[in-house]
Amino acid sequence: MSTEESTSPTPTGTGPGTAGKTAIAVIATAALAGTAGFVVANSTADNDAETTTGGSGTTAGEAATTVTEAEIPGENRGFEDVHTDEPLATTEWLAERLDEGDLHEQDIVLLDVSENLPSSELTPYSEAHIPQAQYVEWSEEFTQPNTREFISADEFTELAQSLGINDDSTVVLYGDNNNWFAAYASWVFNLYGVEDVKLLDGGLHKWELYDERELVEDVPSVPEGNFEAETQNHDIRAFQPEVLEIAEENAASDGESTAGVNLVDIRSAEEHTGEIGVDPDIFQGEGAAIWGHIPGSVNVTWTQIVDEETGEFLPAEEIRAIYEDAGVDFNNPTIAYCRIGERASHTWYALSQILGEEVKVYDGSWSEWGNSVGVPVANTSGERAGLWGQSGD
């Protein structure tokens, strides 16, 4: 894969529909080359106190101080426009719509958001794709250059309109690798207020390999749409200050989840314990100085909730049981994280869209957390790990 703060966020508005800006305390750290330009360094706890994480007994030490603030425009709109009764489109449904003719005339916009790894057994968009699909390059079209922040609402409006998206469009997203970047796109589209967003269940794998359906080379031309983006919905996005406050409360309870929020780490079990990190030569820009997990988080690897043969999501009751068995209490809200946010978006889609729960994505994820100074990290591997985790022996 090329590319999978501290007071609490302080929105100007305080309720759904109230516009404002979230002030996020950050500190510039030039030494962390290849990571985000700003890294949260200070803690919500008293700066003179040490915080002990659960499991490994390592301490966060004295937290650094904030030197600047960054403002991310957004508002709290709640979940009413996010949750949908029909979050998944089947390949059979899409094939029927294609048989009926022009998708645009049916108010459907079909988008391919794939990673296109050389090792993929699926056909890249440039060679062939599902009929009438347009391609979106997530790493260039969703984010601002040289930052990890998303494009502005005006820029998202321009992107959406160029794809032919109208206010009443049904946007159907699909991709490779069990739809992980397609799910990321669905979260971004919801972030900016696109109301009718669906995933093609099973994605390109289901369409091309399992169903053996048609792929074409033709790239569609669509008329410009009229959709206008809203400012980001911060009710579905978590920033590091919010996660930090939760993590410190959990760390103070010896790593137990006591903050009334589920933290779900969807990385591999070995990444969660801190046994391994990532190969920076393969996952460029995603490496972390410290390995482990956020205190109080539970580990449910994202692939557990998809059918191995078809790539489709498991039935809703099975998904719910998997997370409840892992310790997720759905009476509480949930924050999901991974390494850069794309796999966490896949979990967000399952928990938020399929199960209808209140879920946020911490898109900073481990590439932000594991490179931050002064935040608590739990490592249950039995060894300190990562560049700054080594004992130095």
Question: Based on the structure given, which CATH architecture of the largest domain is correct?
Answer: 3-Layer(aba) Sandwich
Shape: globular
Beta fraction of the residues?
5-15%
Query: How would a crystallographer describe the biggest sheet?
Result: 5 strands, parallel
Kindly report the name of the CATH homologous superfamily of the largest domain.
Answer: Rhodanese-like domain
Quaternary structure: single chain
CATH topology of the largest domain: Oxidized Rhodanese, domain 1
* DSSP strand count: 13
Terminal CA distance: 33 Å
Summarize the structure.
The chain has 393 residues and is α/β, with parallel strands linked by helices.
What is the element layout, followed by pairings?
Blueprint: E1 18-28, E2 38-39, E3 68-76, E4 88-89, H1 91-100, E5 108-112, E6 134-135, H2 138-141, H3 153-162, E7 170-174, H4 180-191, E8 197-200, H5 203-210, E9 232-233, H6 240-252, E10 262-265, H7 269-273, E11 298-299, H8 316-326, E12 334-337, H9 342-354, E13 359-361, H10 365-369
Parallel strand pairs: 3-9, 4-8, 5-6, 5-7, 7-8, 10-11, 10-12, 12-13
Antiparallel strand pairs: 1-2, 1-3
